[in-house]
Amino acid sequence: MENILISVVIPTYNRADLLRSALQSVAASRDVEADRVEVLVIDNNSVDDTRAVVDEIRAAPYPFPLRYVLETRQGLSHARNRGAAEAAGFYLVFMDDDQMIHERYLAHIEPAFTATGADCIGGPVRYYNATGLPEWLPPLLEHVGQFDLGGETRALSEHDDVLRGGNMVIPKALLASLGGFDVRLGRVGTTLLSDEETELQARMRRGGHRIVYVPALVQHHYLDPDRLSRHHWRRHRFDYGRTIFRRRLADGDFTAGRTFLGVPRWLWLQMLTRELRLYGTACLLRREDRFDRQLRLCECLGQMYQARENIRTLERTTARAE
């Protein structure tokens, strides 16, 4: 494995059928030397046919070394960090199990790093089956599950959107020096927690590292039918609220202060003054705007839930210490 240049890391959790498509898209790669690429599937406790799918595809045979690794610590960040630790390549390509890469994706990686002087690169993520959508959905999909900054290669500043974790390439040594993905963030099982890639790229910027958007690094994303329901987006915003609070903890920006029902009073005040005031005007709004107000409320409730959970954890830890 000494000659490996690129390690493709695919964390997966109960998506055997979609994983098959992801692996087949990598197998269809062109203009890249087979002995310089490896593929790692990091199974994060799947209970479906994930292992069998990997074994079947590997026996086909597969054009690149294909390894199956079981990561028992639940969470996307744990799985990505395990993939990084197991990888033999100089560059780590992170892709999700419900995505497919362009056939020349791998061939573009080394030239892109050389041409841009980047420390981390990534590219567009586009839904390939987003048809027949309800009218209210496209605005929500603009920044969730897809990402496109146009056709020009450019360095990203702190004011730009961030590369998606499912389409990101970074040298293994650099990720190790940064301590990997923060395991307090990112999806865990079926939760919709997020922002692990956002926090990582913030650390990179603070360290003076250059992050570059490369339009040739295209990945195609499967739009899950669950995302066509309003219930999904209420769950999504609730868990995003939890993510916001977890980010505050990760940044060391949390003071509980006085609490009511286990939740900081300043969070109650935020909900009452911002969210409920807006929600109270719902009868005067169009249905789409009323739904937006519901999502705002779900986000605030998610923050309150996470705050209460963290305060309880702190209280239990203090009690054991005493």
TrEMBL record:
Residues 7-140 form the Glycosyltransferase 2-like domain. Pfam families: Glycos_transf_2 (PF00535). This is Glycosyltransferase 2-like domain-containing protein.
